[in-house]
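For reproducibility, we list the full input for the zinc ion complex.
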Amino acid sequence: MLEVALIRRTTSRVKHSWVRIEQSLGRWRERHPIAEAQVRDERLFVRRSVVTQGITVQSRLGGHGTEGVPVTGDRVVAVDIGGTSIKGAVAVRVDGGVELVGPSVRRATRAVDGPQAVLEAVLSVLTELQGQAPDVVAAGVGVAGTVDAAAGLVRFSANLGWRDLPLAGIAAQHTGLPIVLGHDVRSAALAEARLGAGRDENFVWFVSLGTGIAGGLITAGQVDPGATGQAGEFGHIVVDPGGDPCGCGNRGCLETLASASRVAARYRALTGVDTGAAEVAAAMRAGDAAAQQIWDDAAEALGAGLATVTALLDPGVVVLGGGLALAGDLLRDPVATALAQRLTFRRPPPVRVTTLGDQAGLLGVALAAFDDLDVDRSAPDPARGAAVGSDGSAADPATGAAVAAVGSAADPARGTADPAVGSAAEATS
Ligand SMILES: [Zn+2]
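The corresponding predicted structure, in tokenized form, follows.
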């Protein structure tokens, strides 16, 4: 295949070998038939992308000389796919971090239209951002769901309707860019740890309190995804055994008491007033007893959950993010108090609220994309692209097939376990 030869000769930075992309797409199409014309369009687009990629790489090598030297003028695309909206922006490297530049893009996720429609919406956001900045060199994409970043797969996302979607491969094909996948909350955690409320600490526990609850552990500026990429399901710590049923199938999970959506739902159940978590906070401030009760329950539950995390992990700081954290000190103070009361044997870590707000997810995937560029640039062998895939595996077709087959064989086992985790893993937006 001409494309394979071209990609491998021109760049070591295409994230997934062509063989793997083709196989992943094949498996995806078996389950989600795409019209032949669309397949043809995709291939045409790929050829254009490959040509673009070749030119980009050549000009970058010519313009900047040696590989391994960070290039501060680089720009990347950042996209954050949540259950409610798909957000995107172009990001640029600044001294010590990244910044979002240009107009941001926001589109409704509209999962009711089906998994293919959500995918197309994501691709159109990528296209729009590439139009804003044709010189972008990579893209970072954060997903609300169970993500296997190394394989470029979204294992499961209840809110997006995706299962075993080879999103990195599809997006790479669509844009001609190397794609870095990340989990939405762990991406936000990365940004808070490096640029936000946790930037002076080495060991940061970040919690997103949105539609659901999830957390992320950042050690020395790096995400810890766990052994199978499912670390941080903080919302499913049981804090009230026998309590309300949770979307995961269990009862009394933290998420049933302290997510932004459940705070609003509990207020509705108690008062009949249909409103959001921010309004519940405002009502509490105005002296509403029902709002106060629900808020206290949420803070207590969070304190209990964070006491468990502190006992296990000893974080240097706890950062609260997501919609509920917009309440600021109104949330931080009672949570810090509840945490301190439960930690009878040690001083509690400081509790802070996000300083990056709803930009944390986008900044995090942009950071990951820049990190990936730096790793690739520091590769010692200029011929690396011809012999070794970016995942470190040999990139010959035989090995590529083996890697893809392993990924495929592992799917059913994980698939059966995922719905429980995934259904509640969408913690943002
Ligand atoms: Zn649960």
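The pocket of zinc ion is lined by residues 236, 246, 248, 250, 253, 255, 424 (CB under 6 Å). The chain is about 45% helix and 20% strand. Both points were considered when choosing residues for closer inspection.
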